[in-house]
Amino acid sequence: MALRIGDEAPNFQVETTQGPIDFHQWIGNSYAVLFSHPKDFTPVCTTELGTMARIKPEFDKRNTKIIGLSVDPVDDHKRWSKDIEETQGAALNYPLIGDADLKISKLYDMLPAEAQPGKRTASDNQTVRTVFVIGPDKKIKLILYYPMTTGRNFDEVLRVLDSIQLTAKHKVATPANWKPGQEVIIAGSVSDEDAKKQYPGGWKAPKPYLRYVPQPK
Fold first, then answer.
1. DSSP 8-state assignment for residue 215
2. pLDDT digits over 46-65, tens only?
3. Left, alpha or beta for 8 (phi > 0: left; psi -120 to 50: alpha)?
4. What are the catalytic residues?
5. Where are the domains of the chain?
6. How many CB atoms lie within 10 A of CB 168?
7. Selecting from 2.60.120.10, 3.30.1020.10, 3.30.450.20, 1.10.760.10, what CATH number does the domain 170-213 have?
8. Is the pTM for the entire model greater than 0.85?
């Protein structure tokens, strides 16, 4: 069965560039971003991993750990990390998972079930550019899939993470293209009576079901 938002993120034990980890223990009480890339020593992936290294402090501010994965051995990751630092101006500051046996890629539905170690084709590679955001409760909060030729917008991952964390704390939802600091929407599960207690100053409502309020602090 394919993983869905709200499912528990499968746990695993694996070797990384920063040593062995148990995934759930590694997450601890943090959020986590698990992102995969098709193959080491490839152009788009090089830019992506460098970008994540540069913006890692932004994830740190959000109590979020980041971890990368590809179906290459850890030794290849370590050799490739030198190229990333040289070309992207940022040294890797988060772990990369070695998944040469495809165990985790298949566990997270990143590869076709029939894919075999060492026998992948370009078609097999295409699905391995994914993003999973996982909460402290170990539940999946976001799943993204990208094609091989399209580098990811990790600013969008940060934006969604802000929304996930805000809406987990307050009974609100974020509208299209929302950015932190902008108005939010009172969740549909909140009655007007309860909303008056939380927002005594009232709200803007062009329609009864569309109730805008300032972002909660």
1. P
2. 999 999 999 999 999 999 99
3. beta
4. 45
5. 13-152, 170-213
6. 12
7. 3.30.1020.10
8. yes
